[in-house]
Write a structure and sequence with these properties.
With about 260 residues, the protein is an alpha/beta fold. The protein is about 25% helix and about 20% strand. It folds into two domains: about 170 residues, 3-Layer(aba) Sandwich (Rossmann fold), CATH 3.40.50; about 70 residues, no CATH class. Strands 3-2-1-4-5-7-6 form a seven-stranded mixed beta sheet, sandwiched between helices. The radius of gyration is 23 Å and the shape is elongated.
Length: about 260
């Protein structure tokens, strides 16, 4: 997508740790941080101190988009996921946090960013499919059906992050700016475990051993090391993930010692 000024105007709602800002900086994209919004005071302190948005709004649900007229090229919102998460109570739109999506859609309808990126948990599409279909319908109707809207689930573990974190992403592009070149990122494979671990200051067999005060962890660590050696493998030359916090009642099962193969 080309921008007339050569600078992308970015706006973020439910800003959190300002991941979109960090991503654009890492990509070397020239942008102007038009606004951020979050009702968490600590988030505001971090955002204003470190990312310098031109404006900061404290509540997306009460902001008057017509009055402020805060147009953007790219609009990003990771609206609250707790009401839709499989780990939560499943309140959906009966939970006040689940209604924040209405304010997100309102911004898109009124301010018509050239492109938007929305993020939430997969449960919005599965556990709350009816709500998801309504959200998609509202997004498609935004600006008299002027957006091309796509959605998919991406797992962070497939893109260089050492954590299984599947998330639902919804992307919309104004049809007048959509050149049909958008593609979802292809899986990049697992990141090597060594890339995310702290370095060792001494021999692995001593620096990796839990302290004497953690008796359960120390016993399980020793059991796992002996089991790996008994298999003819070297526990300090190959990466292993070991669950060392299980109690003696449960014991150390085979599933708690896993060789890292990626």
């Amino acid at each position: 997508m080309q921008f007339l000024s050569g600078t992308l105007n970015l706006g973020c709602d439910c800003s959190g740790i300002e991941t979109p800002v960090i991503a654009l900086e890492n990509l070397g994209v020239k942008f102007r941080h038009v606004f951020s919004c979050d009702n968490n005071r600590d988030v505001k302190v971090v955002a204003v101190s470190n990312f310098s948005p031109t404006r900061f709004f404290e509540d997306v649900t009460t902001r008057d988009n017509l009055e402020h007229n805060i147009g953007t090229d790219l609009y990003v919102a990771g609206f609250p996921c707790q009401p839709f998460s499989a780990q939560g109570k499943g309140g959906g739109t009966n939970d006040p946090r689940g209604l924040v999506i209405r304010s997100i859609i309102q911004y898109i309808h009124i301010c018509k960013p050239r492109a938007f990126l929305l993020e939430n948990v997969p449960g919005l599409q599965t556990r709350h499919n009816r709500t998801f279909k309504i959200v998609l319908k509202c997004l498609l109707l935004a600006g008299a059906r002027s957006y091309s809207v796509r959605h998919t689930v991406l797992d962070a573990a497939d893109h260089g992050i050492p954590q299984h974190r599947p998330r639902l992403f919804i992307v919309g592009i104004l049809k007048q700016w959509d050149r049909g070149t958008f593609e979802w990122p292809r899986p990049a494979g697992c990141v090597d475990l060594e890339a995310v671990l702290d370095g060792r200051d001494g021999p692995a067999d001593t620096t990796m051993r839990p302290p004497m005060s953690q008796r359960v962890a120390r016993r399980n660590w020793s059991t796992a090391v002996k089991r790996i050696i008994a298999q003819g493998k070297h526990p300090f030359r190959t990466n292993y993930v070991i669950n060392i916090d299980s109690s003696k009642v449960r014991g150390l099962t085979e599933s708690q010692v896993s060789e890292v193969i990626c």
